[in-house]
Amino acid sequence: MKHNMWILIVFFALAGCKGKDGDKLTIWVMGAEGEKIKDVIALFEKENPDISIRIQSIPWSDAHMKLLTSVIGGTTPDICQLGTTWIPEFASMNALASLDRYVEGSDVVKEGNFFEGSWRTNIIGSSIYGIPWYVDTRVLFYRKDILKEVGYDHPPSSWEEMKYLCHGLVRDTNGDGIPERYAINLPTSDAFILLIFIWQAGGDILSPDYTNPTFDDPKIREAFEFYYSFFDEGLAPLGGTADIDLFHAFKIGFLPMFISGPWMIELLSKQVPEIDGRWAVATLPKKETGTSFIGGCNLSIFKNSNNKEAAWRFIEYMSRTENQTRWFELTGDLPAVKAAWDQDVLNVPIITAFGKQLEDARPSPPIPEWEEIRDKMEVYLEEVIYKKRSMDEALEFLQRDVKKILSRR
Amino acid sequence: MSIKRYSIPFLFIAPSLLLFFVFCFIPIIVAFFTSLTDWGLGGASFVGFRNYVELAGDPLFLRSLKNTLYFTFVGMPLSVLSGLVAAILLNSSLVKLKTLFRTGFFLPVVTNLVACGVVWRWLYNPQYGVIKWFFELFKISSPNWLGDPRWAMPSIILMATWRNFGYSMVIFLAGLQSIPRRFYEAATVDGADSFRSFIHVTLPLLKPTTVFVCIITTIGYFQLFAEPYVMTNQGGPVNSTLSIVLYLYKNGFKFFRFGYASAIAYVLFFIIFIFSLFQLRFIRHTVEY
Question: Is B8 at the interface with chain A, CB within 8 A?
Fold first, then answer.
């Protein structure tokens, strides 16, 4: 049964492929990047006149579903931009081509050139299924002027200092029990931030071979308690975060800190230019470590592409240091190639903070079940934060449920 | 002779039958067989009714079932009733500007659901929302509508009622207009006032229409999806607005558990099937006038 299904899928895949021209590449790129990449494509085609590229831009919201249908229906492109957490899913569906052979023979794409965490998002088992294109990581955004007001001329460096600072920031001037200023915007339940806290406490959610959950580890409990305490102690608003306009709240100082990624840099300077220069970013406060999450996008070649050589040439082109820098200048996406960070355009304080955080950043577990585990983490964390379930029970159930998810393999 | 007589109507409905067969009937059958497999990331193998057994013990599924029943059995009577009231008002001679109101009430039905959801999200906004402002006029503090686990579902029900009552209103209007005048005249001759003629003439004669509206609304409401998807970040807070279809979507398209998702679809199918049968029994006892 198992094999029949794949034979069927491969059959459709092959049927969809016939009649393609040898030098035409189809590339799917997400969101606004689909427009911006056209400049880069023009340069690539000038350098490689034998290859012509067709770009298809897909909105982020549809991307996952569209990719899934194209894999099942065998209508995948040659190359696709994939979110780092999607690689395990599509690799396990047998949709991606292994790039081991190409990496071995390449002068440009070498493991040591990339951020380690970013490279690791592409390794499934012992093979590589994508090449990092750009990276992102979560850091702390904070209002310099408001922190100064409560006596802080530097961002918090440890969990303890973070909590101390938060208590100093909260203001309830009219005494109605609802603060006019909270300390931080924390999503009510975000598995990535929880995962970051778990790593920082020195724990991990799965055993090193990804076969067993470790939610009974007291370090995970410590991270849960840290997350929970922001709500329990009234430092972050409960529930409403999804409906509060973060930009406005950050501007008026209602929420003077938040944890987010590099996409917020451009958004902040576009949405609330009034506070330019009054905010900064910093690496996350440390417990045992200051580890953050590394995300971003990779470029993968699909298994049923019959232009793999040409596709690889494109990926190599995108991995060159000068093109990585150019892409940063075009979009603000952070380069995955370390050498690109030596360029002057990246040498501004806000960007260098990201560079520093990238040195200590890890990907989520590279297993296809991550999406389901993540959902479970969010469900139980949310129940704990809303005081619908005790922490002991939540951790016990999380251990049981994740064990069940992993045993399905 | 009879073959020829019956073949012509079939010829006319052949295109839609064919489309129904290819795009509805076959997928329904395939989905049933999928629900008996564990088709997911690793491939597929036959597991019998294991998915269904797992569903019976899945707290999130039971939660979504409870939420969906809550939504349907509070939301359905509300929208049918408000549709009936609106239809009666528009049918009476007291109301002016009938066309304007009829169009206005029907407008939400044809408006994109996602757009409605986004707008209502703003209305419910706990900081700047119009609803909060309205409550403050009377010095009442309003809850965080979509952010509070107790209020999120009622908020979604209110929005769904607003969006759907126009549909039942239009059907009821047609039903009202098809009631022959002579029944009312007879009632008047017998000395019935307008309230009595409503109870004894309008309501009984509207019964088939009411059953139809109830069934259609129930079927639609059981498939609650876009409202929580857009308004409460896919079922939050604390899964208080997680619906069956939303849970199906999560399993199928986020966790890639196609077999499990198909089993959810079949459970939903049977629930709707049973409720429709139940409601149709009412029609059987309709008295012919």
Answer: no
